[in-house]
């Protein structure tokens, strides 16, 4: 892919960026999805009295929250603290994040007029996002990971107006009104693409595209109705890309075709993915449930994952989904120490 030649030469040389480029280092790099957030008492203290989206759009606060898990755990990367709907908020869309629920929109999208209105909102720029990422890049000696929500996951929220289990409304729209679906998904790809681009311009070294809900789709639907738009979103990235979804076992080949590193959830062993998709760097896939297990159990699980990851050209150790809010943060610190050979 020609975009590789545009990777800036002066980006961090680090275990994480190397792995994302398919280069295996002396040990696996490690970070955790949702490492910034409710599992940390210092996060809960800082967030008091501030809504989630307010916190995302206060540069000093968003930067501080991004850096907290790096200081505490010594992870190899800092995932930017924000949300998949932050760019929508910046673009003027009526969205809020309800604690314990997730993103909730003022209106759901059901008619062509709703889509006309939606696509009139553009993300030009966000000084807040830019400044927050810049602070982290300047202060940290590990790479900053930017991220965005994949068009389908965003559309699933937008069409329902709130989180849903099976995304029926979105899945109906794609077939009942293909033209509206195309407009909605093209728009969502561009807004997420621009969000990624802003983070990269501010210094993010790697970006991850989350398609959390793609697992509810058949392979055929995914290929026809989703993949072209995820491709479009990722085309904005000029740094290595990671693509992750949950329950996506049947879709992994297609997802891998549009990114540099394939994120694997906890349901599929890494060595089986490496066999299916040879030559692909992989990220994953500690079962978040085992963070609450005795250390001896967790240690064995991590050993197995690192071993299985050797079947891929490079491996970034992570969870198979986000850190549960009830996690004892000391367990995460211990995992990092273990991986670094410090235990
Ligand atoms: O990984 C990180 O540490 C970076 C920050 C991050 C957040 N959200 C912060 C957040 C990232 C990468 C996300 C992505 C995100 N947001 C996804 C994709 C990843 C995934 O988990 O599948 C999705 C689907 C969302 C939408 C969303 N935002 C949900 C479902 C929730 C949880 C609602 C709840 O309270 O249980 C949010 C809110 C959210 N985003 C929180 C955080 C830390 C919790 C808000 C709080 O602390 O008050």
Protein architecture, described:
- The protein is α/β, with parallel strands linked by helices.
- The protein has 16 helices and nine strands.
- Strands 1-4-5-6-7-8-9 form a seven-stranded parallel beta sheet.
- The relative contact order is 0.14.
- The N terminus is likely disordered.
- The site of coproporphyrinogen III has 22 residues, from strand 3.
Structure summarized in a few sentences:
The protein has helices at residues 15-20, 41-47, 52-56, 59-73, 86-90, 112-119, 127-139, 151-160, 168-176, 178-201, 219-225, 227-234, 252-256, 270-276, 295-309, 329-339, and strands spanning 78-79, 95-98, 102-105, 144-149, 206-211, 241-245, 261-263, 282-286, 315-319. With 343 residues, the protein is of the alpha/beta class.
What distinguishing features does this structure have?
binds coproporphyrinogen III; globular; 45% helix; 343 residues
Produce the secondary structure layout:
Elements (H helix, E strand, L loop, with lengths): L14 H6 L20 H7 L4 H5 L2 H15 L4 E2 L6 H5 L4 E4 L3 E4 L6 H8 L7 H13 L4 E6 L1 H10 L7 H9 L1 H24 L4 E6 L7 H7 L1 H8 L6 E5 L6 H5 L4 E3 L6 H7 L5 E5 L8 H15 L5 E5 L9 H11 L4
Parallel strand pairs: 1-4, 4-5, 5-6, 6-7, 7-8, 8-9
Antiparallel strand pairs: 2-3
Helix pairs in contact: 4-7, 6-10, 8-9, 8-10, 9-10, 10-12, 14-15
Bound molecules: coproporphyrinogen III.
Catalytic activity: uroporphyrinogen III + 4 H(+) = coproporphyrinogen III + 4 CO2
Enzyme class: lyase
EC number: 4.1.1.37
Secondary-structure arrangement, i.e. CATH architecture: Alpha-Beta Barrel
Stretches where pLDDT is under 50 for at least 5 consecutive residues are 1-11
- On the 0 to 100 scale, the average pLDDT is 95
Summing up helix and strand content along with how strands pair, one would put the structural category as alpha/beta
Give the ligands present.
Answer: coproporphyrinogen III
- Widest sheet: strand ordering: 1-4-5-6-7-8-9
Main sheet specs: 7 strands, parallel
Percent of residues in β-strands: 5-15%
